[in-house]
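re: ur question from yesterday

yeah so i grabbed the chain u mentioned. its 394 aa long if i counted rite. heres the sequnce exactly as i have it in my notes:
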Amino acid sequence: MLEHLKDQPADKILALIAAFRDDPRKDKIDLGVGVYKDPTGLTPVMRAVKTAEYKLWQTQDTKTYTGLAGDPAFADAMIGLILKGAVARDRIAAVATPGGTGAIRQALELIRLAAPEATVWLSNPTWPNHPSIIKYLGMKSAEYRYFDEASRDVDFAGLMADLVGVRAGDVVLLHGCCHNPTGANLNAAQWAEVIALLKARGAVPLVDIAYQGFGDGLDADALATRAVAAGFDECLIAASCSKNFGVYRERTGLLMAVARDAKEQKTAQANLNFLNRQNYSFPPDHGARIVTMILTDPELRADWEAELEEVRLNMLTLRQSLAAELQRLTNSDRFGFVAQHRGMFSRIGATPAQVEQMRAEHGIYMVGDSRMNIAGLNAATVPILAQAIVASGA
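ran it thru and got these structure tokens back, copy pasting raw so excuse formatting
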């Protein structure tokens, strides 16, 4: 049997991690892997997470299964965090998932179950796992323009022109905030136009919100997702706790299905439970329980929000510092977009050859399309990166 298997294409991010690990240079810089790093290069355990884990260790008296959907308190806490009353609770079906990737996978499984002929529309570019999972599931997909390579901003005219082609019942995947991989976001007026167009076309939105709190603030980053949920009879929302709670390895996510009414919510909930059962039975609980404790304990939540804001401001400072250094070196503002983008990522516009040059000559690792993780920088490495970008001719 196994001799019939074919080699699978290497994951570019994982290959980059391996190449960085094997590079013997001590001054190498990792801007590839999408994890937050503090100024010392550490991906820390957040203070509130440590406190919650200690409390859990003291009080938890069983490791028995939770329900198929996970602990209901986790769903309630996350729905409150993301939607904040934008939709009546009795319209929302939800299941805990193994991270944001698990939420996306279950969302696509639900779409395939409910509307197998639907086309899933993806921004170009998007997170590589989106098209990869869709292809693996044998689903139809299409792209809409999103990023203008010249301005390094959203190609809004192209986006709107492409979405006119969406048919009733199609699913349009939207990044709730901090677009991955570009860092370029729609503004409030543009979001309103997108929502109006998709409603007119009869589309179903699928919002991927993986970076709430990393962009403009915890509430500000959720505004678009709340507007989508409030504006449609039904939509799907895939959420991750990996970044904003720093629980990457705990695989903590949630999938929400907003239904037309309470009756359809019950059917949706039963189908989400069914899909969890088919894929992994009961979802992971440790990370979800930690998140629940933080969100429902006023002191823990206050400490978490304060540290999350420190993380956000650190990334914003790095963006501003890099943009300023590039302006100083080039005597132009053509890299000003770096300070305007939000979240962990930006695409700086370097060619694959220029990216390779930066790796070979300076030990700087980023994805071949020039997506870089801003959080991989610190005050000492910002000028090194800026000089490498200029030297490469990017």
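noticed a couple things. The mean pLDDT is 96. also The chain has two domains: 11-44+312-392, 65-296.
anyway ttyl
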